[in-house]
């Protein structure tokens, strides 16, 4: 993708180039990743997860081999996405809404709860 010839770019040089382009890269210490579809669930145990943030657009890369299981059988729906405080709203979503709307985390969480986790609707309500 970048550079030509030989062995390509070393990871440090690639990281510097991405930083110059405004792309932040973060490794996420994921224990499990579940992708739910209407037909099956894909369960990644000990997957390598990388988050790239390019000027507010977040992209997640999952590296690993998933196990395909029956739809809805990976974990329970009651436990899925529940944070330590019992909320089904991920902390990352709360942070994003709080930042975008310029409000505190409690207010952002309330707006997300009121809008069933819809980020855009929560931000719109707070503006």
Fraction of residues in H or I helices: 25-40%
What general form does the structure show? flat
Q: How many beta-strand elements?
A: 6
Integer average pLDDT: 79
CATH architecture of the largest domain: Single Sheet
Structural class: alpha+beta
Sheet with most strands: 3 strands, antiparallel
Q: Give the strand order, joined by hyphens, for the main sheet.
A: 1-4-5
Note the run of SSEs as H and E: HEEEEEEHHH
For this structure, what is the CATH class of the largest domain?
Mainly Beta
Task: Please compute the radius of gyration using only Cα atoms.
Answer: 18 Å
Low-confidence stretches: 76-84
**Proportion of strand residues:** 25-35%
Looking at the structure, the CATH topology of the largest domain is Ubiquitin Ligase Nedd4, Chain: W
Subunit arrangement of the protein: single chain
End-to-end Cα distance: 40 Å
The helix count comes to 4
What's the number of structural domains? 2
